[in-house]
Structure formats: C-alpha cells, structure tokens
C-alpha cells in the first residue's frame, strides 16, 4: 500500500501536525486490517516530497564550514527515518486501541537505480514548498542550479532527478519480515537512491517517485495486490471537465490508451497510473488506485479504480 502526501502532511508542516495526520492514517489502515475478509499481510510505503524539500532548505539555511548541509540522498534517508518513526508509533498505538495483535517494523530502505538514467539530466520530481512566481524568481537568484516548474496550478516547486527503480536492496528482508505477519514500513520516499559503482553501492542525489518504488517492492515481495492511495476515490478521464468520467474496473490496455492521450498530468496522477500498470504487467495481479478514506468502501464493495490485465 502506497500512501500519498495527503496522508502525512497537511497545511501545517510541524512535527505535531504531521504526527496528528498519521494518527488518522493509521486508524484507517487498522480499519482495513479489521474489515478485510481474509487475514492481511500489509507492507506500507509512503512519499516524502514535501518533507525532503523542507529539510533540505533547513540544511542549506543552517549550513556552515563546521556544520555543512547534507546531500539530497542523505536528507532523503533522514526523512525516511522520521516518517517511518511517526508512522510506526501511530500504527502501534492504533492496533493496540483496536485490540489487534500486530507488530510494526520500519526499515531504512535503499532503491537501486541506473546511473545513466536520463532522469538525472531532466529533473521532474517536485519537492518542498510551493512558491508564487515572485518567490520562485527569488529562489532561482539564490540557487542558480535549481530547476522549478509550475505544479498543477498550485504554484511553483523545485524539481529534482527522479530515476526509475531497478530493484529494492532490502526486498529480501521485507519479505522475510512479512512472513512473520508483521506490518512493514519500507521504501519510504521511494527509497534512498543508490547506484552501483565499481561493484559498490553509493548514494546519488535524487528523489525516486514513491509509486514506482511501491510497485517494484510489491513485485519483489510477491504481493497479491498493489493499492495506491491518493486524494480521490477514482482515477478519472477528462478530469474537471463537463464530460469527466470516473474509472472503475479497467484494463491495462485501456489505461495505456488514456496515458497516450495525455489524460493524466505529470507529477500528479500519471506516475500512479504508470506504476499501477507496471505492477499488473509484471505480476498479472490487480492494482488499485483510490483514496485513503475509501479503503473500507473498496474492500466491501469494490469501489475504486481497479486495473487488471
């Protein structure tokens, strides 16, 4: 299950507010475990785009010769740790309150990428806060090597390289823990990006899209199903237009046609659809896209966008 940013960050970026958001998220996940008709083995991934961008700004603002800012891969590891800690606590507490005997483990996870991936020369992954046009120009003046894009009509955000995952380094450990019926939190923020150089793993400055990493981890962990949670109950074509159409049961071929038509915006629904398609094609198993507050509706009635072969 891949949690979207709305499951973690509200308008208030404080630790207390994010922990409060995760408390509600954890209660929904526990509800899923209790509602399911069969026992659930749950692996949870999550995004970190806002958190990694905010922490990177803090690193830069506080940087000095004696206390230099950390690189982007390390900042990604920091946010993976902080969100994993918050979510593990929230899930432990929610399970205890619901009388469900489940242990929770968060794993700091590395994601292998290709050092020659074209994404390193074409940054696309939005991180950090939104800026107005004037604020964006001020940031460019301070950081000439940064790239900004307009993000879904909500303002401008910095974008960084987002290579596609080849593998998840800790996937065997995730599978082993999952076999003990623990809830696993892994590949947070897409995982810490690493490449192989001279036979050794080394971190690279990038942020991997969490939906693609979730699909890859689900594939490697032999998951029965991939569920990508976002802000809407259904994926829709002709979104926000008079002829908008919500998608329920849909085939990979049809979704690929919609992708080719440009139905899904980059940085928003497009990577979710692409990740879902990848999982279905690699495994022959279904991928679901829906909202966090509709998880019970999906389990009880199949209300969601469900992609099959």
Automatic annotation (TrEMBL):
It catalyses: hydrogencarbonate + NH4(+) + ATP = carbamoyl phosphate + ADP + H2O + H(+). The keyword Transferase applies. InterPro entries: AceGlu_kinase-like_sf (IPR036393), Asp/Glu/Uridylate_kinase (IPR001048), Carb_kinase (IPR003964). It comes from the Bacteria. Residues 2-291 form the Aspartate/glutamate/uridylate kinase domain. Pathway: Metabolic intermediate metabolism; carbamoyl phosphate degradation; CO(2) and NH(3) from carbamoyl phosphate: step 1/1. SUPFAM superfamilies: Carbamate kinase-like (SSF53633). GO terms for molecular function: carbamate kinase activity. PANTHER family: CARBAMATE KINASE, CARBAMATE KINASE-RELATED. Belongs to the carbamate kinase family. This is Carbamate kinase. It comes from Weissella halotolerans DSM 20190.
């Amino acid at each position: 299950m891949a949690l979207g940013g709305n499951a973690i960050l509200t308008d208030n970026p404080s630790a207390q507010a994010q922990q409060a958001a995760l408390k509600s998220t954890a209660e929904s996940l526990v509800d899923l475990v209790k509602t399911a008709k069969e026992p659930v083995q749950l692996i949870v991934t999550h995004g970190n785009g806002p958190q990694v961008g905010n922490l990177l700004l803090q690193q830069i603002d506080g940087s000095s010769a004696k206390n230099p800012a950390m690189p982007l891969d390390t900042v990604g590891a920091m946010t993976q740790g902080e969100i994993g800690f918050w979510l593990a606590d929230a899930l432990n507490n929610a399970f205890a309150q619901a009388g469900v005997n489940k242990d929770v483990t968060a794993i700091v996870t590395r994601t292998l990428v290709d050092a020659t991936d074209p994404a390193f020369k074409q940054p696309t992954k939005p991180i950090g806060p939104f800026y107005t046009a004037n604020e964006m120009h001020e940031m460019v003046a301070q950081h000439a090597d940064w790239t900004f894009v307009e993000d879904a009509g909500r303002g401008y955000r910095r974008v960084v390289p987002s290579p596609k995952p080849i593998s998840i380094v800790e996937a065997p450990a995730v599978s082993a823990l999952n076999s003990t019926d623990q809830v696993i939190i892994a590949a947070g923020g897409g995982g810490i990006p690493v490449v192989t150089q001279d036979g050794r793993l080394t971190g690279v400055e990038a942020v991997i899209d969490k939906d693609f990493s979730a699909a890859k981890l689900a594939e490697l962990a032999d998951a029965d199903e991939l569920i990508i949670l976002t802000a809407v109950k259904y994926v829709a074509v002709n979104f926000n237009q008079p002829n908008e159409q919500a998608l329920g049961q849909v085939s990979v071929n049809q979704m690929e046609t919609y992708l080719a038509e440009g139905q899904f915006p980059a940085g928003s629904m497009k990577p979710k659809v692409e990740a879902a398609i990848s999982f279905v094609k690699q495994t022959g198993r279904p991928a679901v896209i829906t909202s966090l507050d509709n998880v019970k509706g999906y389990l009880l009635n199949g209300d969601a966008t469900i992609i099959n072969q």
